[in-house]
Amino acid sequence: MRRLLPFLLALAPLTTTAQSKPALPATFLVQGRLPGTTARMAYLYYKNGTQSIVDSTAVHEGYFQFKGVVPALPQAQLVLPAPGTPADRSEERLPVYLEKGTITVVGTKQVKNAAVEGTPLNHESTSLATQVRTFRAQLDALYAAYEALPAAERATPVAEAKLTQEANAIYEKRQQVYAAYLKAHPTTLYSLYVLESYVGPRPQASAYATLFGELAPSVRNSPYGKVLQERIAQLQRVAVGALAPDFSQAGPDGKPLKLSDLRGNYVLIDFWASWCGPCRQENPSLIKVYNAYKVKGFTVLGVSLDNASQRAAWLKAIETDGLPWPQVSSLTRPNPVALSYGVNAIPQNFLLDPQGRILAVNLFGEELPKKLAELLNKTN
Predict the structure, then answer these.
(1) Is the pLDDT of residue 28 over 80?
(2) How confident is the model at residue 161 (pLDDT cuts 50, 70, 90)?
(3) How many angstroms separate the Cα of 202 from the Cα of each of 12, 239, 342?
(4) What is the pLDDT of residues 329-371, one digit of tens each?
(5) Where do the Thioredoxin domain residues begin and end (predicted)?
(6) How confident is the model at residue 3, as a pLDDT?
(7) DSSP 3-state assignment of 72?
(8) Which residues partner with 116 through β-bridges?
(9) What is the Cα–Cα distance from 224 to 203, expressed in whole angstroms?
(10) What is d(CA 76, CA 29) in angstroms, rounded to the nearest whole number?
(11) CB neighbours (10 Å) of residue 116?
């Protein structure tokens, strides 16, 4: 059964003549074989323009099948949740590219490790995933070893520094694989997806634009290439040196607060949510920085990505974490401010000067107090 999220289906117009029939739309067929899976249902998430689609089908002894019209943007997520696990929370997911023809998904138990073949994009994806999976396994082993340490040893700066150093080394090796692929495949559409993996969830606009510009014009001007063009343009609008877009959202008391109301201060716009573990872990350090520099003209504006059903959790998190600075939220998902700032992952932050210009992006750990000491100890 296919469920269309609340958008209207927009089909491209088909040209006709008096002597010919309209051309039929290109179709895809996904055939899956995962004999060891415990999943009873399979879900296919994808978009066609502004239309979001969730297709579902039963899994019989590991076999399942989807049929449909090839969307304008081919990337989809195939999800096979374990019984009792909501599909949108399952980690058993795999990227699949919905192209014309028959696409085969073959594996054993876990769909995330399955091979996808049958069409060009899926062949490229499976080939590269085989290389990258090695690094994922190395990271999993590294974190497992860290968690196995006695609690007292885990908490030491030496152990944490060692973990960070080794994890960064694995990450850099993966980045080298992505970079080599991009250099060798400038005319391949799959390079657009590799580029997104390479720049990560918090990309720098300048590096993103440079790498995108090295791809062939046919790739840059493809439907997904145009999506990335807009994404890069959005990031450039909130890059270092740009005037931060003004906005107004309601605080916990329902009263609106504008970003520009805080002009005259150095402002850290902190994107977070009550359900974001890394955000909450960052809060104690941020409180220390706030207390140290608030008398010198520094403040924080929290922008929560919680939705309406999470309002109570948002308020509780503010209270539990003891956050003393102003907080706002649209209590919708997506949050329009997050969209305007190109925020795809949290935590993220933007440091503004007293005139509202962006001085730095994503200052975490010791980076934020170091930057503020440079700015405020010099000017106060």
Answers:
(1) yes
(2) confident
(3) 34, 12, 9
(4) 999 989 999 999 999 899 999 999 999 999 999 999 889 999 9
(5) 238-380
(6) 38
(7) coil
(8) 105
(9) 17
(10) 13
(11) 24
Backbone angles phi, psi at 338, to 5 degrees: -60, -40
pLDDT at 20: 56
Which one, of 33, 92, 30, 78, lies nearest residue 59 by Cα? Answer: 33
Q: What number is the average pLDDT over the span 241-265?
A: 95
Residue burial 254-292, b: 16+ Cβ < 10 Å; e: rest: eeebebeebeebbbbbbbbbbbbeebbebbeebbebbee
Beta-bridge partners for 47: 52
pLDDT digits (tens, 9 = 90+) for 270-289: 999 999 999 999 999 999 99
CA distances from 250 to 29, 272, 304 (A): 47, 15, 11
Angstrom distance (rounded) from CA 376 to CA 296: 7
Question: Strands 75-79 and 41-48, how do they pair?
Answer: antiparallel
Instruction: Compute CA 141 distance to the chain's CA centroid, rounded to the nearest angstrom.
Output: 24
Q: Which residue has the tokens 């062939």?
A: 216
Q: Say how far apart CA 78 and CA 289 lie, in whole Å.
A: 43
* Cα gap 248→115, rounded to integer Å: 47
Strands (E), the chain: 2-4, 27-33, 41-48, 51-58, 63-69, 75-79, 93-97, 101-106, 115-117, 248-250, 256-258, 266-272, 298-304, 327-329, 348-352, 358-361
- CA of 31: how far to CAs of 7, 222, 350, in Å? 27, 27, 45
What domains appear along the chain, each with residue ranges and CATH number?
Answer: 2-7+26-117 (2.60.40.1110), 122-237 (no CATH), 248-379 (3.40.30.10)
- Copy the structure tokens of residue 76: 């989809």
Alpha-carbon distance 148 to 145, whole Å? Answer: 5
Q: Which of the two residues, 21 and 140, has the higher pLDDT score?
A: 140
Task: Give, in order, the Cα–Cα distances in Å from 179 to each of 93, 127, 128.
Answer: 25, 15, 12
Q: Which residue has the tokens 């002597």?
A: 19
Residue 278's identity, in one-letter code, is P
